[in-house]
């Protein structure tokens, strides 16, 4: 009965482990709530557990997240050099040229401490964990002991009320279950019942005393008047704040993840420009789709998306600050040292990556040089103006006449 409410297949071990974490969090918050009230179900334990659970899992995945985001930031630095290599061997298809192209491309990735699959690999590792995490949040009765006991108690009373219990449930819209797997399916059905549907169940089984089991289930899922087991739906209600915040936080997360080092946009070919344009459209559409999906999903899922996006925003802010304050040459130096350490372990000689500065860095240096020259020129003009305007109001006719006079005096003195 319990297995049917939990994850099966290759994700089962991951979901089980995450379920243990979630169950532990629920019990911890439940015990703390008991210190302050004799009715802990008045505390939104499920909502608090989802937020803390998301933070913990995100912290576990933090090293991979940082690596993925670092790859995204470094892509803006690598692309000019990679494009230059591609252009260099564009019309060369002989074996020597292809080998040289691969070697030079590999050197660029080593230079920046990453690999062509750096971003995709970390995402592939995270995907099974994220799918299992979603399953745990979506099927809480299968993983949280106290919730399962409450739902199971109600299911036992329903199935033990008589042979016609399945027929009575069939008469209630949305609660139809089969007699063969009814008890297992019924646990999830009970957990997701709205107060209105629960009233119909009570009316159908008026002779059964359910106690306050449903009130406890509903109380654990009541977050500021929002039932986390119910979808907000396309109606005006306080619950719509969940999909709105889900879309907004994801939009902020996407904005922070956008590469700020795209100084080489003009050097992109048509294919790369098209991909960049498509990605920009996707980054705009996805937050909107998230908000739309959260309208139809249980609010608990929307709360998870909000918490996940907030954690992602904090992580991205830290990464952006660290990357912006770190000199590119310093990054390259560190990565060369790391690459040589790995080569030393394999008995290989240290690699010497050519000290060819990327187009990006060249452009930055040129911009800095122009700014320095401009500052020096402005300083000279200011000093010159100050020299000739010492005895008159700047800009006045007297000042201009004084400039001519002092200029002549300065020339005569030099002679």
TrEMBL record:
It is a multi-pass membrane protein. It comes from the Bacteria. Residues 367-383 have a biased composition (Basic and acidic residues). The keyword Transmembrane applies. Keywords: Cell membrane, Chaperone, Membrane, Protein transport, Transmembrane, Transmembrane helix, Transport. Residues 367-393 are annotated as: Disordered. The chain crosses the membrane at residues 14-33, 45-66, 236-254, 285-307. The keyword Acyltransferase does not apply. One of its GO terms (biological process) is protein insertion into membrane. GO terms for cellular component: plasma membrane. Belongs to the OXA1/ALB3/YidC family. NCBIfam families: yidC_oxa1_cterm. This is Membrane protein insertase, YidC/Oxa1 family. It comes from Eshraghiella crossota DSM 2876.
């Amino acid at each position: 009965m319990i297995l049917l409410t939990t994850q099966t297949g290759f994700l089962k071990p991951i979901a089980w482990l995450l379920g243990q974490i979630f169950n532990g969090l629920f019990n911890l918050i439940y015990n703390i709530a008991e210190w302050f009230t004799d009715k802990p179900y008045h505390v939104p334990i499920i909502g608090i557990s989802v937020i803390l659970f998301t933070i913990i899992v995100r912290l576990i995945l933090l090293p991979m997240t940082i690596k993925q985001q670092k790859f995204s930031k470094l892509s803006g630095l690598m692309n000019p050099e990679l494009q230059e290599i591609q252009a260099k061997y564009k019309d060369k298809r002989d074996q020597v040229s292809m080998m040289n192209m691969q070697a030079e491309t590999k050197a660029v990735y080593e230079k920046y401490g990453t690999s062509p699959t750096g971003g995709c690999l970390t995402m592939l590792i995270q995907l099974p964990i994220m799918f299992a995490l979603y399953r745990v949040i979506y099927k809480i009765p299968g993983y949280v002991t106290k919730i399962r006991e409450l739902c199971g108690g109600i299911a036992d009373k329903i199935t033990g009320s008589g042979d016609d219990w399945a027929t009575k449930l069939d008469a209630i819209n949305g609660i139809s279950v089969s007699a063969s797997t009814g008890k297992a399916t019924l646990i999830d059905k009970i957990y997701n019942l709205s107060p209105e549907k629960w009233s119909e169940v009570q009316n159908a089984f008026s002779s059964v005393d359910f106690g306050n089991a449903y009130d406890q289930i509903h109380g654990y899922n009541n977050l500021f008047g929002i039932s986390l087991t119910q979808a907000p739906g396309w109606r005006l209600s306080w619950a719509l704040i969940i999909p709105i915040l889900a879309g907004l936080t994801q939009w902020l997360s996407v904005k922070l993840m956008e590469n700020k080092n795209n100084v080489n946009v003009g050097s992109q070919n048509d294919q790369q420009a098209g991909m960049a344009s498509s990605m920009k459209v996707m980054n705009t559409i996805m937050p909107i789709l998230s908000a739309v999906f959260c309208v139809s999903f249980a609010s608990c899922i929307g709360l998870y998306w909000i918490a996940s996006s907030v954690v992602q925003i904090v992580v991205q802010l830290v990464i952006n600050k660290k990357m912006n304050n770190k000199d590119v040459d310093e990054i390259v130096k560190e990565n060369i040292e790391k690459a040589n350490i790995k080569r030393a372990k394999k008995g290989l000689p240290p690699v010497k990556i050519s000290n060819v500065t990327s187009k990006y860095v060249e452009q930055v240096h040129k911009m800095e040089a122009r700014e320095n020259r401009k500052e020096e020129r402005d300083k000279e003009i200011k000093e010159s103006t100050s020299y000739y305007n010492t005895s008159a109001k700047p800009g006045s006719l007297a000042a201009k006449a004084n400039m001519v006079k002092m200029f002549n005096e300065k020339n005569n003195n030099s002679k």
